[in-house]
Amino acid sequence: FSILGEIVVNEVNFVRKCIATDTSQYDLWGKLVCTNFKISFITDDPMPLQKFHYKNLLLGEHDVPLTCIEQIVTVNDTKRKQKVLGPNQKLKFNPTELIIYCKDFRIVRFRFDEAGPESAKKVCLAIAHYSQPTDLQLLFAFEYVGEIYHNPAKKVNGIDPGGGGGGIGSASGQQTPLFETYSDWDREIKRTGASEWRVCSVNEGYMISTCLPEYFVVPSSLADQDLKLYSYSFIGRRMPLWSWNHPNGSALVRMANIKDVLQQRRIDQRICNAITRSHPLRSDVYKSDLDKCLPNIQEIQAAHTKLKQLCVNEPFEETEEKWLSSLENTHWLEYIRSFLKHSAELVYMMECKHVSVVLQEEEGRDLSCLTASLIQVMLDPYFRTIVGFQSLIQKEWVMAGYQFLDRCNHLKRSDKESPLFLMFLDCVWQLLEQYPAAFEFSEMYLTILYDSARISLFGTFLFNCPHQRVKESTEFAISKNIQLGDEKGLRFPCVWDWSLQFTSRDRLAPCVQNGAVKTFKRSKKNYSSTLRGVPPALKNGIISEQEFLPRRNSLILKLKPDFLQQTEGQSNSMEQYFRDWFAKPVDLHGVLLPRISGTQIKLWKLCYFRWVPEAQINHGGFITAFHKVSLLADEVDMLNRNLRQYKSNSTLQGNCSELDQSRMYFRANSLNDTSGAPDFLSSSFPFSPVGNLCRRSILGTPLSKFLSGAKIWLSTETLANED
Q1: Which one, 284, 455, 566, 715, has the greatest CB density within 10 A?
Q2: What's the average model confidence in pLDDT over 247-253?
Q3: Percent of the chain with pLDDT over 70
Q4: Domain residue extents for the chain
């Protein structure tokens, strides 16, 4: 265990890792280890059917970070007992089996038939104890950072904690702005041309609000004294926060509710007047009350729980016939559509009506994080680059006080858990799926980013706000006799330092769906619907009237555009804006609008199905086609290099160095490379579900057809009719 500060707390030998429920043929034998960072299964057995796994430098193929564990179930077969283990509970029976349910939809199962019963019990209790810490400072990041400060020469993979890092797969090495300093905010003001806005330092030392960043942007016409005065009227003293400026001068602003009812109208008017004065056209302000028009955090959590139940817990054989209706009943895709639709409406207000938009929410640190981020992804192509997207998350989530500790439930005791960050990544995935060439990154990047929120080494997604990081880490430093000097709290490793997790080659993989290392871009393509009878999108998504008509035997009724029911006049102009936009070719460096009809909002299969062996399509998925394109592009590069060598009579050594600089993730062995697709390519690339609990094959079932994107059947009767 090479991570600084990681120690083994318990282990047991002669453990069997179960690969399938109906046979032990493929099970692995080895040692189950619990450390203060992860659980690990160490085996000398070759993985059955295992072709490929994505190598994470922090986690092996059988490892699960402690913060990724959701539930621990111990079982005794002979006594027919089972128990969900809490952090300080006793276990009155010797377990014969351990089942671990993970937050990323994995299920891992171990058998202790040959292991010592007391040793098995101890390791189960250790996993329960260390995966459910009672205090924030017991999370592994504190242990690691404490070791770093006591041993400054030692670093994980040679990386200092706390840096912004470059983008994953980023060739430029450009640093991600963390928005912890005055200068980062000032640069963003200049980048967006927000000349009537200024960086405010009134919250330095968190003197006004502990859930705001030390620096943020406000209208130039608002004086610091006014801000201090107004702050008392806002929930959490969260004064209005500027997020972004449109080139036409419209601003995007986030604001908590005003709790002082008597002062509400007066303060609200003054804030709106200041925002109006910051607009070059002195345009009105459009306020959107997110609490009234979007699902709340409890509804989102309930939808996620149902989605997990559907994708993981329910046996496929029991749900296959009603799988699609069950998916609809989770409301997950419905909520995705709600966020995309509302964000697109607000894009219209800024882009077409030239008005500033204020996102109002009770505390201003949940729904507004998601909505503000989506609006900027749709409007600003910078946020569709890797470094830009990372800076967006820093600005709108980390620094704006999104409560990662509570919402991700790192301490396993929060009743405030809600996967808003995952929902945001899913919304971005919907846009990425519809306009792949508009993004520098792929769905693989989004999935890895989601996984990184479950690794307790990084400080990025560990705290409820920047002040909590400073307060908790300062207390920890004092308790460990660490000298901070002028630093404001300890510096934790930053998730944007991707070299902590991946080799330089593997850091290119999250960009493969967009071609080579950033330069080889996929061309725009038509997407066939998962529903039969819907033609590929034409003219950027608009389908002409005659093509709304269903084909013979189609399950789809006549479709209608699905945007915006508001006041009649506004609705008409808004609908016209969307119709005009969809009728033109997409400007990949301009505004992006989502297609939100029922056929266009899809389930993010790579994220939710990658650990389900039954759902994997061997030699299937987009990656198989990309592999062929990649080899072809690499052959073209090889021909170009050979031509340059022929013309310049360069040495063989020079040519070899050029060969090593291939832009492609998959490389051709030679010209006219006829080798087939590697065995490790599947629909869950770069992840391998092998080693996680299997149930039974779903080949030929309606769910299998859904996964392959072919058709959707409502019942086996329909299936028989189709055949």
Answers
A1: 455
A2: 97
A3: 77
A4: 8-132, 182-313+324-500
Q: Which long-range contacts (CB under 8 A, 24 or more apart) does 700-709 make?
A: 701/316, 701/320, 702/320, 702/321, 702/323, 702/324, 703/316, 703/319, 703/320, 703/323, 703/615, 706/323, 706/324, 706/530, 707/605, 707/609, 707/615, 707/617, 707/683, 708/617, 708/620, 709/528, 709/530
Q: What is the pLDDT of residue 551?
A: 32
**Main-chain phi, psi angles of 203, to 5 degrees:** -100, 15
Residue with tokens 């939100």: 596
Using a 10 angstrom Cβ sphere, with 0-12 exposed, 13-18 middle and 19 or more buried, the burial of residue 178 is: buried
pLDDT greater at residue 43 or residue 185: 185
Residues 6+ apart with CB under 8 A from 570: none
The Cα 18–Cα 313 span in angstroms is 16
Rounded CA separation 639/656 (Å): 13
pLDDT digits (tens, 9 = 90+) for 578-587: 999 999 999 9
- pTM of the predicted model, to two decimals? 0.85
Residue 92 neighbours by CB distance under 10 Å? 10
d(CA 82, CA 94): 10
How many Cβ atoms sit within 10 Å of the Cβ of residue 224? 13
CB distance 381 to 373 below 8 Å: no
Beta bridge partners of 508: none
> 8-132 adopts what CATH topology?
PH-domain like (2.30.29)
| Contact predicate 559/599, CB 8 Å | yes
Residue 238 has a CB neighbour count (10 Å cut-off) of 24
CB 532 within 8 A of CB 712: yes
Task: Give residue 302's region: left, alpha or beta (phi > 0; psi -120 to 50).
Answer: alpha
pLDDT digits (tens, 9 = 90+) for 453-473: 999 999 999 999 999 999 999
- Beta strand 356-361 with 285-289: parallel, antiparallel or unpaired? parallel
For residue 332, pLDDT beyond 50: yes
495 pLDDT band (50/70/90 cuts)? very high
